[in-house]
Amino acid sequence: MAMQFTKAEKQQAKARVAITGPAGAGKTYTALSVATSMCSKVAVIDTEHGSASKYADEFSFDVLELQDFHPNNYVEAIKAAQDAGYDGVVIDSASHEWFGKNGCLELVDVYAKRKGGNSYAAWADVTPLHTGFIESIHQARIHVFATFRSKMDYVQSEDRNGKKSYQKVGMAPVTRDGAEYEFDVVLDMDLEHTGMVSKSRCRALADKVFRNPGADVAQQLLSWLNSGAPAPAVAPPPAFTAPAANQPAAPLPVTDDEYTALTLASKTVGITTREAWLELWHSVMGNRPRATMTQDDLKHLEAALQRRADEQMQPETTPPDVPSVDAETPGEQQKARAAFFATCNENGVDSELAKEWLRNKWADDAKLPAPPETTKEVPVKYIKEMTRQLKSGKDTAQSVAVYVDSKRVPAA
Q1: pLDDT, tens digit, for every residue of 226-278?
Q2: Of all helices (H) and strands (E), which one includes residue 73?
Q3: DSSP state at residue 290
Q4: Host domain of residue 170
């Protein structure tokens, strides 16, 4: 489809106002004052434990108190206000979507734990949630007023008499960097309840300072919003269905790194062929493909590998009529073999390969006509010596593989 430019035209719009400031600056009061001066029916999304309702004797509004600050809950609340016929909604405060219970920062911690502590990977899941919250503000067909807490700092000031004092001031808003770019007007409040317009697309408000801002701001802003051509009718955006607050999070997929680590671990317990791997896979996953694998599936597969490793640590059954070299001390022999296979596993030596290596090495050193059928026939002292060689690095996974290959009889 060819791109085409059209002549720009100012259209009527809905307010997108951010009000920032430190605790005690009057953010909630200012938001209510401006909103009720502009709108006939106001809804308030309250995350501040009912603080907005303390002004119910001065302003008329309806309130919804959020207890869970997941971004999707904000999205659902904004949509609920729009669908209920309100023409303005106050979000007090939008900062909780960032740092509150089940807010973005907390969600990153949760997802990071599921991804092996990788917070960078966790943001790939959380950023779309925050973006959805911002988009719900843009797409709302009603006026939106959002308050943001400001990061706190203290500055030293000096009066005319030279007396120094420290004053609490608000710095950047507590939310994701750059959030102020999403609003038409940003009003920064201080502890004197003075609002300075730090950003405005409305020229009448740009760089203005208001003492106890309210109807004066609302009047100028509404005049600007109502000027221009009527906004074209647009179809409402697709309905968003947010998950219930107590609904468990969807299972996390398994990353490529996690899958690779699993396949490498499988080789240490003797799963060295595609057939053996598919047998293990189908025992847990059935016929499901790799793309559907979740963290729960990964745990089940890891448990299956652990059971296989545990089984390999059990003593082998000695064939009938084959005397055991260390039959008089079965406990010591079993302990020596367990230590040997554990060391093999630590050094990346496949367990089946390790058995073949141990039997052949003993046959060579003892000058036997053929290697014993089981490792149980190898003396305890010899098993311990082979264990020491692996630990010292004298023998490695590569040297073991080369030795075993040299002993195998080629197929006819």
Answers
A1: 999 887 765 555 544 444 444 445 566 777 767 777 777 777 777 878 778 78
A2: helix 71-83
A3: G
A4: 16-226
